[in-house]
Each structure stands twice: as C-alpha cells, then as structure tokens.
C-alpha cells in the first residue's frame, strides 16, 4: 500500500540543516536516495544536464529549495527551473523551504506555478513526512 | 493760510510722519527693503533698508546694469526669467532666492515684485521688496539635514533588524530541528551524535552575533572624533600589514592622491575601507593575470568639498545586473571562494554610511570592478 519516494533533492547551503533533514529522512524512511546541491547553480546545472541525457531514474520526485543561497539564490533557480520543468512530465513537486518569514517572499513563492507550497524553517518532522507521503 | 487750514495741514503732516515712522519701523523689524525699477527713465531706486540688507553704503545709487550682480550665480537664469515674465507679461512674483551683498556674502531673500502700469495699461516699471530671510532658510536647511540623518538612521536600523531576525532565525531553526530529532531518535548513541551539531550551531550563532556587534559598534563609533587622515599614509599602513598577500599574488598597486591628499575621517574606518577593498580585489583576482589595483582621489564635480575615492581592479568582475543590489548585503557571496564570508563589503558600506558617505560599484565580468566612495 505505502509507496515510497525513490529520489528526493535538497538545494540548500546550510550544512547543518541538510544533515538534520537527511537524518529525519533516514529515520522515518521517507525516500531511498537523496540528491544534495549547495546552491541554485549546482541544482540548475544538474537539471539542465539531465535534459540532455534523459534518465527517468535520475529525476527526483520532490525538491526542497532554499531561497537565500550564495552564487545563485532560490529565486533565480526557480526562474530557470520553471522554463524546463514541463519537460520532466510533471514528475517533480517543488517546495520552497526557507527561514524567511517575510510575507513578500512567501506570497511571491506561492504565486509561482512551479512551487507546490512554502514551508517555513524550522520544518516539523511530521510536516516533512506529510510532504513525502503526499507525493508518494 | 487760514488758521483752520494751517491746523489741518499740521494734522496731515503729523499723520504722514507718524505713518512713515510706523512703516519704517515695520520694514526695519522685518528686514524688508523696497525698490522700484523705472523702465521709462531706465533707473532703479532703493530705499535705505534695501541698501542696508544688501550692505551698500547709504548714498549708493543703484543702476539697472548691476541688477544681475545682486543674485548668486546659481539663480541668475531663474531671476532673469522671473523678471522678464513680470516686465513683459505682467506676471507678479514672490520667490525665495539666493542674493549677494556688496561684500559678496550670500544670503536667502524673499523677493516680491509686481508690474507698474501707466494710464494706457502699459507696463512702465516693476515695484517690489526684498526681505532678508536667511535665518529662516538656514533653519529650514538644518531641519532638512536633521530629518535626512534621522531617515537614513531609521532605514539602517530597519535593515539591521531585518538582518538580525533573518540571520538568527536560521540558527534557531536548526536548534529546533535538533531538539525534534533528539526526541524522535530511540537510542542514546544516536541522540549523543546530535550533540555535535549543537556545537556547530552555537559556534555559528556566536560568529553571527560577533558580526552583528561589529555593525552596532560602527553605528555608535560614528560620533568618534574625526581627525585629518592622509590617504597615502593609510594606504602604506594597510599594504604593509598585508604585505605577504601582496607579494604572494604579485599585486601591483598604483595610487594618485594629488587631487585630494587628506580627509577628515575616523582613521580606523579609512584603514578598514582600504583593507576590505584591497583584499577583495586580490581575493577575486582573474586567474589569467596578476592583479593591478588603481587607487585615486578626486573631488565631486557638483560639490568641491566632497572627496571621492576610486579603487579599481582587473579581477573577475561581478554580474551587476544579477548581484548589484546584493553586493553590499550581509552574508552575500557571489563566487566559489572557500574563504568568502560575505561580511567585508557589508561592514565597509556601514562604515561609509554612518559618516554620511556613499559607496557604489561598477563592474564588467572578466574585466574588473571599480568601487567609488563619496566621503
């Protein structure tokens, strides 16, 4: 009955946060594999390359995207990701996960078609589990 | 003359004298002088108070030719226009202008004028007053300055509050996450493993608070005493302190401070500005060439008293379209440099602005970056 996500992706520059979410995912067995990118540039490079060498198994089902990152922030990632998202056959659900409680950020993110929802850090373990279960 | 006539004459004479006395008193007390420009006879007339306000001798006879010399140069065009409108089209005026006294002292005056018509409705002159309102305008200017300072302090405070909430939130949310996980995990070993993360979070939290303290101290230090600082000496001090980095990277530094050699400033801030901008230029050097840094001073072309410092490099450059508005933000880094902390330019900006200066940057990718500071 309970399906499980195979591949999830985190784009975040905060090492400790990434480590903790990884631990939660392992403990609750929320997915099999995890892709981690430390900023938007690394993330978008992965997805743009993936389009060239299309491999269904390498497409994550969920992306947890931070906003404030060096080199390329979450907004720029979203701008470029939105252009190619449909080519992945709507398999990818993207959540923005940020510590920003600025309502401008929240409204802007939620208004984007490629963003499923906005989660405010710290995420609660149950909230995270609900996200993964909903997609699976 | 009959008795009654004499009496009447005396009364009207007294009345005239009395009126004159009051007009003169009110003109003196309000520093208001009258004038008249007679187009038919090509002459101008001033009363005593106009001469007094404009610092001309009591027996001075004004001429039409000198009219423009009564006004500060920056208002010549405006005054010419205003007088023409009045003389040709009969438009009265009431404006605040900068005037020049005989001693070349600038002061603010209110100039009111209206056309004078003859019986044929033809304009034959302009009559009006000058009122010395320098005190009032100076107060207004000071008030405006004070309000600008308050507004800029307020916006920096607001910005600071935003930074505090944002940067502390990321640490506190990690702590919350750790606590959640500790409750979630079953074995003691796993719980203990998480303690290590708390060490990391508390270290980063401390660093953030240190940085915030640094920013706060800039705001309070800005009342520190400014002294005369020499650009060349400051540059030498800073380059000596980072001599090793300069040699290791084969850096060439050219400087020209001939246009402005000294400035009234807080010495520690100028040190820090030089240090931050120089180390930045070296840190983000182009891999294909040795760093060349050009430093020069000049004076702002609209305000000679304002010293401008330019520091340009031939480094990596930065995409200003993308990062321009974030360049001076806290914890913003733009290159893959391991030692980029995103604090230097933020501190520099705060130091410059706390002393009412401005900093800006222009850049071309792969060509270099120029920082301009208006002190």
Automatic annotation (TrEMBL), chain A:
The keyword Phosphoprotein applies. The modification 4-aspartylphosphate is found at residue 66. Pfam families: Response_reg. Keywords: Phosphoprotein. Coiled coil: none annotated. Residues 7-136 form the Response regulatory domain. PANTHER family: RESPONSE REGULATOR RCP1, RESPONSE REGULATOR RCP1-RELATED. This is Response regulator receiver domain-containing protein. It comes from Winogradskyella eximia.
Automatic annotation (TrEMBL), chain B:
Residues 93-145 form the PAC domain. Residues 163-375 form the Histidine kinase domain. Keywords: Kinase, Phosphoprotein, Transferase. GO terms for molecular function: protein histidine kinase activity. The keyword Transport does not apply. The keyword Transferase applies. InterPro entries: HATPase_C_sf (IPR036890), HATPase_dom (IPR003594), His_kinase_dom (IPR005467), PAC (IPR001610), PAS (IPR000014), PAS-assoc_C (IPR000700), PAS-like_dom_sf (IPR035965), Sensor_kinase/Photoreceptor (IPR052162). Transmembrane segments: none annotated. It holds the Pfam family HATPase_c. It is an enzyme of class 2 (transferase). Gene3D superfamilies: Histidine kinase-like ATPase, C-terminal domain, PAS domain. Its EC number is 2.7.13.3. It comes from Winogradskyella eximia. It catalyses: ATP + protein L-histidine = ADP + protein N-phospho-L-histidine. This is histidine kinase. Coiled coil: none annotated.
């Amino acid at each position: 009955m309970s399906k499980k996500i195979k591949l999830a992706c985190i784009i975040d520059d905060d090492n400790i946060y990434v480590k903790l979410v990884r631990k939660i995912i392992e403990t609750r067995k929320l997915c099999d594999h995890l892709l981690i990118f430390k900023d938007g540039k690394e993330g978008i490079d992965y997805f743009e390359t993936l389009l060239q060498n299309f491999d269904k198994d390498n497409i994550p089902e969920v992306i947890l995207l931070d906003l404030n990152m060096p080199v390329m922030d979450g907004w720029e990632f979203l701008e470029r990701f939105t252009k190619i998202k449909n080519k992945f056959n709507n398999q990818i659900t993207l959540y923005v996960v940020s510590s920003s409680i600025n309502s401008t950020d929240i409204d802007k993110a939620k208004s984007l078609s490629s963003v499923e929802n906005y989660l405010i850090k710290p995420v609660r373990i149950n909230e995270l589990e609900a996200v993964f279960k909903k997609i699976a | 003359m009959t008795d009654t006539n004499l009496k009447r004459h005396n009364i009207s004479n007294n009345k005239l004298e009395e009126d004159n006395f009051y007009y003169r008193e009110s003109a003196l007390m309000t520093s208001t002088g009258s004038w008249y420009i007679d187009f038919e006879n090509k002459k101008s007339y001033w009363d005593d108070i106009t001469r007094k306000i404009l610092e001309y001798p009591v027996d001075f006879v004004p001429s039409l030719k000198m009219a423009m010399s009564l006004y500060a140069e920056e208002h010549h065009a405006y005054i010419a226009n205003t007088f023409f409108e009045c003389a040709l089209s009969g438009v009265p005026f009431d404006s605040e202008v900068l005037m020049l006294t005989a001693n070349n002292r600038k002061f603010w005056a209110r100039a009111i004028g209206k056309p004078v018509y003859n019986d044929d409705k033809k304009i034959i002159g302009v009559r009006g007053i000058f009122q010395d309102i320098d005190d009032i305008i100076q107060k207004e200017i000071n008030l405006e300055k004070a309000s600008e300072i308050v507004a800029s302090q307020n916006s920096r405070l607001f910005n600071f509050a935003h930074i505090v909430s944002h940067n502390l939130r990321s640490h506190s949310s990690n702590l919350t996450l750790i606590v959640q996980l500790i409750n979630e995990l079953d074995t003691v070993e796993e719980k203990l493993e998480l303690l290590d993360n708390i060490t990391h979070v508390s270290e980063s939290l401390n660093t953030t608070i240190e940085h915030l303290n640094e920013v706060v101290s800039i705001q309070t230090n800005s009342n520190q005493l400014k002294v005369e600082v020499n650009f060349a000496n400051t540059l030498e001090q800073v380059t000596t302190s980072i001599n090793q980095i300069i040699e290791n990277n084969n850096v060439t530094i050219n400087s020209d401070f001939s246009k402005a050699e000294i400035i009234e400033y807080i010495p520690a801030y100028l040190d820090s500005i030089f240090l931050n901008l120089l180390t930045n230029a070296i840190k983000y050097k182009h891999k294909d060439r040795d760093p060349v840094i050009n430093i020069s001073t000049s004076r702002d072309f609209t305000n000679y008293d304002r010293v401008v410092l330019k520091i340009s490099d031939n480094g990596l450059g930065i995409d200003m379209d993308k990062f321009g508005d974030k360049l001076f933000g806290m914890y913003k880094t733009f290159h893959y440099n391991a030692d980029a902390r995103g604090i230097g330019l933020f501190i520099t900006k705060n130091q410059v602005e706390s002393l009412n200066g401005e900093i800006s940057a222009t850049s071309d990718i792969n060509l270099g970056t120029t920082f301009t500071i208006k002190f």
